[in-house]
Write a structure and sequence with these properties.
The chain is an alpha/beta fold and about 325 residues long. The chain has one domain: 3-Layer(aba) Sandwich (Rossmann fold). It contains 8 helices and 12 strands. The strands form 2 sheets. Strands 5-1-4-7-6-8-9-10-11-12 form a 10-stranded mixed sheet, sandwiched between helices. A two-stranded antiparallel sheet has the order 2-3. Helix 2 packs across helix 7 and helix 7 runs antiparallel to helix 8. The longest helix has 19 residues. The chain starts with a helix and ends with a strand.
Length: about 325
Amino acid sequence: MSRRGVSVLLAGALVASALVGCSADTEPAPQASASVTPAVTAAPSASASAPAIPAGNAPASTFAVGVRQLKRNRDGDRPLPITIWYPAAGRAGGKPTNSPQAADGRFPVVMFSHGLGGSPKDYQALLTRWTAAGFVVAAPTFPHTSGSGQPNVLDVLNQPADVSYALTQVLALDARDGDPLRGRLATDRVAAAGHSAGGVTTIGLFTTGRDERLAAGIVFAGTALGVGTAFAGATAPQLFVHGEADEVVEYSAGKAVYDKVPWPKAMLSLPDGDHGRALLGDNTSLRVVADTTTEFLRWTLYGDTDAKGRIATAAARDDIATLDNHL
């Protein structure tokens, strides 16, 4: 991650801390800006049901990767272009290609949320690994926390609703005549993931903005500032990934949220990991993070019990991470 990116994220974390406080078990405090309107003002009942994933097997082979863009706008004033990576027909390996034919099969969907000042393409090295393993990955570009301008950190509280909207738009492609992804989406097998501010967004999708379509979550370097830890709804396994040397979101802050998760959970900790390079670069740490999260997704979205057993093995690779495993 660039030095500027780290500075933006650090400033955002400090502003968020000052404005919304550090209470982890409550709903967001009243906001300083009237433009911030969290999608849900009360946590849903814990009796609500999420999709039950039957036992099955994840694809044994890898796929070529296609990429396309959707242009969407929530409520007319929140433009949300969505980058979609999907398993494509053809030989596996190589760079993603624009809008090729989709591979045969039905593939689970992972919604990914970028960090402050970032964009989906910053995470392509990780997200295309998930895609090659048999997942459709959809990543909205948020209107007020992306790019090179000055991000509005308070708008993070609007982003869980953005992700839910984007998910609805993506799942609709499965039934749209003539769409390349028609009949290719496992619409009942969906997870959410996100990094930093996107981690806050992801936590919010399981707390104040609970989206009951989500069966699992992955939180990279996230905190519960503004969205709390009142995890709600049906059981949804969670995997947290955090560097113990994180200079932006303290490891202890991520661990505090993880400790509040009431469902099956695990935390992948990188003793030498910082805030972003393990996710953004093609290095040893990225391989461990990618392999561990891929096995987690194979288990939670394909129902692959063998993959569940491989999570700990992937985490132990190269002896650079530890796994607190309660899955």
